[in-house]
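[job 0412] stage=fold_complex status=start
inputs:
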Amino acid sequence: MPVAITLTVNGETLTRLVEPRETLADFLRRDLELTGTHTGCEMGVCGACLVMLDGLPAHACLMFAVQADGTRVETVEGLTGSAALADLQRAFHERNALQCGFCTPGMLISAEGLLARKAMPSREEIRDALSGNYCRCTGYEAIVDAIETVARRRAAGEAALPFAEEPA
Amino acid sequence: MPALALRLQAPERLIDIAHIPDLRGIDLRDGWLRLGALTRHAEAHDHPLIAAHAPLLALAAPHVAHPAIRNRGTLGGSVALADPASEFPAMMLAMGAEMEIAGLQGTRRVPADEFFQDLYQTALEPGELLVALHVPAAGPQHRCAFDEIARRRGDYALVGCGVMLTAPAREVESARIAFFSVGPTPIRALAAEAALTGRRLDGEAIRLAQAALSQDLDPPDDEQVPAAMRLHLARVLIGRLLGRIAEGP
Ligand SMILES: Cc1cc2nc3c(=O)[nH]c(=O)nc-3n(C[C@H](O)[C@H](O)[C@H](O)COP(=O)(O)OP(=O)(O)OC[C@H]3O[C@@H](n4cnc5c(N)ncnc54)[C@H](O)[C@@H]3O)c2cc1C
Ligand code: FES
Ligand code: FES
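[job 0412] stage=fold_complex status=done
writing structure:
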């Protein structure tokens, strides 16, 4: 039997009926059509489904949507819209820290979670923070570089330039 | 939750306990640290009372899964699940913690030594809820160390261990040592503990404790590593941990 939940997704408060068996990831992707939250393993291993839940990274595949009742969820779409990730996105782009891009939303959320906890992490700490994010393309080196760059830029007080696709 | 996602389990009813206030909170009272069952792994990482009085949990937390899992996973969930490769259940054993369990008949407290019974099998009966974990508060007379050997950071360990020594001076007054990933439950190394008790923690004592492990552990052969290698790794690990304590501040 569907259950009514009320939550805030990307700044917008909404009430929806959900099946108790539906995961938060499926709810975001199917019901709200926010397909930036990816599903890979659906068992907490690959990190493609990470979202910000009440400000902290959490796996959307490891929660039922009903458990998100009353919470504040931000997906990669919302964090892009608010430009919260703009400098990370720019640095990923500059450093070619993505190829197919499947892992990227989760990488950005993990990176943002790390930088919120620790402004200037070491490369070791960056790698540790990404230990639950699988990337099948890049070999991680460029991702670590990009996050390190953003930490340095933020510490230097460089305002994030809005990220836009560069003209070809 | 992964078991549900993979359809390994299909319960008819699933109860969300996340909003029960009695299962929350971290307080220090009468020499015991009470950790509500819903205490998150991330709090074990960061909470000052845990760092001061249950340092083994703080040392173990960075090794449990990944940051995002630690934001959601609870101590009660980890202990109730009793995965033999899990860090926190073994630390409950090493610290001599007691589990507060509530059921229709009222509440009871079960020592960690009796709580972990077999593979994924605990003293929890159907219908019972783990309410809190009570840890004897560690003080300056305690020395502890934790580490694990895993293939990659965040993976379940091949062997892991927590050591808690009561050693107000040079001599070890008493010891509690618990291993994980070496059998169906977290396992106390009673012979190694006895080998250390009443001795100065020097190279000889450490060698005796390492030798005693063959009486304590009987790890299974599995597809990851043969039993003999697991026992060897356990010896290496306890040597490192006791060495770390002996050198300590
Ligand atoms: C990718 C991944 C990697 C992981 N790596 C590690 C690791 O390296 N080390 C490690 O130790 N753990 C690891 N875990 C496990 C994780 O840390 C959690 O401990 C575990 O998933 C339990 O989560 P939970 O607290 O949400 O409990 P749940 O998943 O909600 O519950 C687990 C079980 O305990 C029962 N339960 C929960 N709370 C109570 C209670 N208060 N009373 C009675 N029964 C209860 C539930 O009914 C269920 O059967 C990993 C998990 C994932 C997904
Ligand atoms: S889909 Fe959630 S971690 Fe892989
Ligand atoms: S860019 Fe393809 S998985 Fe990471």
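[job 0412] summary: Residues A 44-45; B 1-2, 17, 37, 41, 64-65, 69, 72-74, 76-78, 80-81, 86-88, 124, 129-130, 156 surround flavin-adenine dinucleotide (ligand 1) (CB under 6 Å).
[job 0412] exit 0
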